Amino acid sequence: MNWPRRRVWLSKAGSSYSRWMLGLPVRDATAGFRVYRARALRALHLEDVHTRGYGFQVDMTWHAVSAGLRVVEVPITFVERERGRSKMSAGIVLEAISRVTGWGIARRVRGMRQTDAASTARRRSRA
H/E/C letters for each residue in the chain? Predict the structure, then answer.
């Protein structure tokens, strides 16, 4: 609520890009109120979460989905601050883009390898 257009665009673009690159089954990957069960946090490899800033939201969602955990979204209304300044910076945006791009490429390479292995196995079983 009361967000500047640039911030709305950045949030929507970041979420869309993250969903596309990572195949995330969430509507908003970049923000929201997140609640994790202790059991879920123990199942994640938290030592692999290195993202700072707002990319942390995508990082944690990506780890949860990759671990096969169920992710449920409950919409919230985020009201733009009346005082103070956002910590959002070009560095934080660039970090998020580079990490999501790297994870997405790795995901596609793994997917291709898995597809190639499955195809090879099917060919061998037919021979």
Answer: CCCCHHHHHHHHHHHHHHHHHHCCCCCCCCCCCCCCCHHHHHHCCHHHCCCCCCHHHHHHHHHHHHCCCCCCCCCCCCCCCCCCCCCCCHHHHHHHHHHHHHHHHHHHHHHHHHHHHHHHHHHHHHC
Q: Is 29 exposed, middle or buried (0-12, 13-18, 19+ CB in 10 A)?
A: buried
> CB count, 10 Å around CB of 38?
7
Dihedral class, residue 82 (left if φ above 0, else alpha if ψ from -120 to 50, else beta):
alpha
The token pair that represents 59 in the structure block:
């990082």
Residues 6+ apart with CB under 8 A from 14: 29, 30, 58, 93, 96
pLDDT tens digits along 72-124:
888 888 787 778 777 778 888 898 899 999 999 998 888 866 545 444 444 44
